[in-house]
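Postdoc handover notes: sequence design on the structure in folder B. Input tokens:
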């Protein structure tokens, strides 16, 4: 009888010990408004992000990162902002294309960063969510002036000739030295207009051997520098558009507009657009940080780590 009683008590103690252990593993470490995060969830998130918890102060630093991330997700949810799998797939496809990465190279890049594809997708999804929230909260409240663009350009690239309008072009020249010249030029122009790599075509076909080595790039031209037929052909063409064949005394030209300098500032449009986007992003990020800081200060946050 004593043995049976002892066994029952021992079983209860073991069960109680297991329950306590589970509670210890899954104890609440963070409360953000109505959202609860347990220790096991916190540690799993740290592991996925490659966080070294043995580093001094890292667990508290990561805890604050979790708070910031959760605040963003809660605000996005409240605003009805989501990121679909289709949007995420499209963005990742664009990124791979921009950096010219195939699946094998992508896997290798992730492996070097100690990241799984799932974790990589999660991080990008959060980036897209943050961008959408930023656009929703700061749209119409951020402006970038021409003066700011000028100052940024001078600080980054140096002086420029203000108010000078120039155009930068690349061309593929086919000499008009036979009955098939126009037909050949038209065929090459069609290839270029349907997305074939222009520098590659220039190196392969252009009979202007000097510019061909630079992908056909001829540099910048002021108004009046080009022969009349070429100047007329590119007058209203947008950056990255291709025109031709255009005939000149030198032969047939397939022309790609690489850049234009703004008629007001004299700054190349490619730089101007990039600078405008950079300044806009910096301003928008600061505005979003301030917005989220105010939200964080009014949110109910309880740290139990």
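Designed sequence:
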């Amino acid at each position: 009888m004593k043995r049976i009683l002892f066994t029952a008590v021992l079983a209860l103690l073991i069960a109680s010990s297991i329950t306590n252990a589970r509670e210890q593993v899954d104890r609440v470490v963070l409360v953000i408004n109505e959202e609860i995060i347990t220790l096991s969830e916190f540690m799993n998130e740290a592991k996925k992000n490659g966080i070294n918890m043995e580093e001094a102060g890292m667990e508290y630093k990561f805890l604050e990162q979790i708070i910031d991330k959760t605040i963003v997700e809660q605000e996005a949810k409240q605003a009805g902002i989501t990121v679909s799998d289709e949007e995420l797939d499209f963005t990742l496809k664009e990124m791979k294309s921009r950096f010219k990465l195939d699946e094998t190279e992508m896997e290798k890049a992730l492996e070097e960063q100690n990241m799984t594809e799932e974790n990589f997708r999660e991080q990008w999804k959060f980036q897209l969510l943050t961008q959408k929230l930023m656009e929703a909260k700061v749209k119409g409240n951020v402006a970038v002036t021409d003066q700011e663009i000028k100052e940024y350009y001078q600080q980054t690239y140096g002086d420029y000739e203000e108010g000078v309008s120039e155009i930068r072009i690349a061309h593929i020249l086919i000499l008009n030295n036979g009955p098939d010249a126009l037909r050949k030029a038209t065929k090459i122009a069609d290839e270029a207009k349907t997305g074939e790599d222009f520098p590659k075509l220039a190196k392969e076909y252009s009979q202007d051997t000097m510019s061909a080595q630079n992908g056909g790039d001829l540099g910048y031209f002021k108004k009046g520098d080009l022969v009349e037929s070429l100047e007329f052909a590119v007058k209203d063409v947008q950056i990255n558009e291709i025109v031709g064949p255009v005939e000149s005394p030198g032969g047939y030209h397939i022309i790609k507009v690489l850049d234009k300098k703004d008629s007001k500032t004299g700054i190349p449009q490619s730089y101007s657009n990039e600078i405008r986007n950079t300044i806009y992003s910096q301003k928008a990020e600061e505005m979003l940080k301030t917005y989220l800081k105010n939200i964080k200060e009014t949110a109910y946050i309880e740290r139990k780590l």
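Context for whoever picks this up: The beta strands are 28-32, 35-38, 166-174, 217-222, 242-248, 251-260, 301-303. Don't rerun without checking with the PI first.
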